[in-house]
Amino acid sequence: GALMLAGQVDVALAGPEVAIFIYNGESSDKPQIFATLVGTDGYFLGSRQKKENFAWSMLNGAKILGTRPGSTPTLYLSYLLSQKGVNKETIASIITNIGQQAREGAFLSGDMAFATFSEPAMTKLVTSGRIHYIGSVGKEIGRADYTVLMAKKSWLAKNKDTAQRLTNAIAQAQAWIKTAPAKEIAETVASFFPGLTIEASITTIERFRSSGAPIWLDTPEVSVEGLKKFQEIMVAGGVLPAGKTLDYETIVAKNIPSPKK
Fold first, then answer.
1. Per DSSP, which regions of 83-146 are E strands?
2. Is 234 exposed, middle or buried (0-12, 13-18, 19+ CB in 10 A)?
3. Is the entire prediction scored with pTM above 0.85?
4. Residue 261: pLDDT band by 50, 70, 90 thresholds?
5. How far apart are CA 240 and CA 242, in angstroms?
6. Are 75 and 238 in contact (CB under 8 A)?
């Protein structure tokens, strides 16, 4: 966000909160969101012990490994647990003081009963038999736009065609991801994930596809309800004042349409 404001980058890829915080700040050149890449939280919940008949009440009083404090995944998890009736004391005690790179090791050597992991970490731990997969955080929450593309209004005014081409390219990639065989996708992205086997990559892709969550989207169109839900989560987490939420029309660019399916 800071690089975008300083003119060092034209387009920023980040959570919607970046655009909202900047918009609510003192900058006169307001940002606008013009495309969505990820439609909800991409983390998955797992348990140390296998749960044949999982119920959210099992989390009451349990040690839960989350991500860093105030991070989007922690805010989504806290919101979800609150919605599921998990008590406030348990939510307040989610473990958030372990760095991202140390989380797997901390879970393996610790006594946390539950943890959230993104991919490919979840697949690695499930394959090793050290965690039991429960489900997708994003499926339970539903659409709540998570990762978006944004730019300053001044840049969008002069570069509408560039933003439109970028949006169209994302739409083409989304269409390909939806229909391509998992093995083909895994082989295509292999260079971006050194050390990850093709087999593990295929499992990761299939987990995202079968999660039932709108993580990988069909189009780059920003969702009205998804943006509203996102801000609801931010307000509930105490990082966005209720009076500072923004209407869809205010923060989303109107003149860069997503291609029709």
1. 114-117, 132-136
2. buried
3. yes
4. low
5. 6
6. no
